Amino acid sequence: MTSHPIRFLLNDTEITLTEVAPDETLLDFLRLSRRLTGTKEGCAEGDCGACTVLAGRLRNGALRYEPVNACIRFLAACHGCHIVTIEHLSPKGAGLHPVQQAMVDHHASQCGFCTPGFVMALYGLWMENGDPSVVEIETALQGNLCRCTGYEPIVKAARAAAAAGGQAMDALARERDGVAARLAAIPAGAEVSKDGKRTILPASEDALAQALLDNPGATLIAGATDVGLWVTKFLRPIAPAIFIGHLMKGVSVSDDEIRLGAGVTYSELLPIIAETMPELTDYLTRIGGWQVRNAGTIGGNIANGSPIGEMPPLLIALNARIVLRRGNSRREIPLEGFFIEYGKQDRQPGEFLESIVVPRPDGARIAGYKVSKRAYSDITAVAMGILIREERGLITEARLAFGGMAGTPKRAVKAEAALRGRPFARDTFEAAAHAVAGDFQPLSDWRASAEYRQAVAANLIRRFWLEQDGEEVRLSRTVEA
Ligand SMILES: Cc1cc2nc3c(=O)[nH]c(=O)nc-3n(C[C@H](O)[C@H](O)[C@H](O)COP(=O)(O)OP(=O)(O)OC[C@H]3O[C@@H](n4cnc5c(N)ncnc54)[C@H](O)[C@@H]3O)c2cc1C
Ligand code: FES
Ligand code: FES
To answer: What is the pTM of this model?
Structure first.
């Protein structure tokens, strides 16, 4: 096999690796190989943010840096990126970075274990938002846990860093053109192996289609926010692996539909949702934390077949379709038909999810709700997507899809029937809230009991009515200072 090395920039250094196994994590590489021990390991599952680094990537010629979790980012996925660690912020002999100085000034660190991760997330925010609100700071910090300091001093530090400014003089701003040119010079694809374990990064979508035909048993890895945990928590072998997180990034928005490449991340989707379906932005910002949303893809959330993935209930309610590709053949199916039963999806060997087509719900009332134990960065107990269309006071179309209520994301056909053809009124939604009990026999597990899930499903239907009727039903969130 010809080796096309993995190449990326790490702070100021160009890295070229001819031997990389697919399951090697960026965090192990930083700490064990490069002795860059400022980046910490807490949970090794994307939950605590102690391992936060910035990943810079060229998108349509522009260089954009985003915080990601080094613990569940595979080394191979760094190909073509600029990885920035805490050590880059204040090189030896230089003073503290404005974000670090603000953390000191506001006593925002006690034991300090979480601090490099907080600094890196705040650094990412500081670069892209010169005047963040408290809610924006909290959103940026959803993926960072601190056990001892408390968040108030950290939020104050974030505001103070923004007020201190200096973004134009920052090293990443000054070096931007040079870094962009160095990244652009790195060839798109790579293929390496180590100890017989193959790592393939196709240079294009056509190359991916061929690579998967040639290796139908390979593990596809997009953002690795699921697959990363197979390795760090379950020690599961994943070789050979095909990395696809850099592919299928296209988005097109027409009057009728939104087409999303399967590799679009939550963070890339958010501005499109904010423009086209703003009522769904809260739902999206409750998926993972910022680091997870910067890596996790919509395609991965569908393809993993999870009964509690958050995008499928929403997308099924919106009547989305998916395009599956095998070699040069494509087929388009309704998303709801993809989920056959728990652990079984309508996907053939050699086939991958290429894109998602979402009809624009213009004129319909839509909502997405998630109920979980923690507001942010937590697994769903129950999620609901809903779309209601009415004409002259009568409901003409009702699509309700739930996650967490069955072995797959599923429509609530009895609740839909209770709505269809009925007046858009409280009694109708009350009838649907009763009918949904006949749609599912949910399981009890450590996340929620079956009775709780049934009660939540009914109450989410009631919540939708209340909101549409003008009542404000909101999660409690920090009030803007
Ligand atoms: C801390 C944390 C919090 C999380 N919070 C949430 C949450 O709130 N809500 C939620 O829904 N999920 C959550 N997740 C799960 C995860 O982030 C999502 O499921 C994410 O969308 C997975 O996408 P990915 O690109 O990372 O997938 P990967 O991990 O790369 O892959 C997941 C699966 O999909 C397959 N796959 C990926 N892309 C394709 C493709 N194009 N074609 C065919 N197969 C493909 C892979 O082979 C694998 O089987 C969380 C994860 C973590 C670590
Ligand atoms: S070590 Fe906890 S998120 Fe990576
Ligand atoms: S300062 Fe100790 S965990 Fe945050």
So the answer is: 0.96
